[in-house]
Fold:
Amino acid sequence: MREVLSIVLASSNQGKLAELRELLSDLPVQILSAREALGHTLEVVEDGETFQDNAILKARAVSKATRLTALADDSGLEVLALGGRPGVRSARFAHERATDAENNAALLRELEEVGEVERSARFRCVLALVTPWDDVARTVEGACEGQISRAPRGSGGFGYDPLFVVDGQNGRAMAELSDQEKNSVSHRACAVRALKPLLLAVLNERLDEAERVLG
Structure:
């Protein structure tokens, strides 16, 4: 499939990059990392109060730096017993430069005395798409419901996937699902399904403009 549009992902997370490349593989787009587009990583201060705030901040910063269309993903885990935490601090739950294993261990410590009902949780994802020609932030959202297990399970995925038991998946954690299964039920997959009509509109705008230029 011939690529019509290059999109820079405003994230250095290789797991997110791989997932989004797969989820968007049916569209004529090329998904680049910021390092691939710029030759270096781009640090963006994520000081927004919501996933949407942070997604828009990242997408606008990367689009401005690269002068390309940018896609930002801000996502995380919301746990009932913790009042929605870790939320926007999901990647920094244990400390500012925490590894996935450290964040998982911190979450299990906080939930050690919590019963099954209050272990309900939700993965949420907000995607923001920003183009360099109008700076309009187009946002969509997806969610996946589940529960937090009492120990890590499975070897797939990243982040909190080993602890997140997905509703409707026979008691399996996200990290126990195949890539194909995960890409049909995950919060990111849901958000991408909502994104595709917006992305197709942007692609059509580019094609229409190219036709006008070429006469």
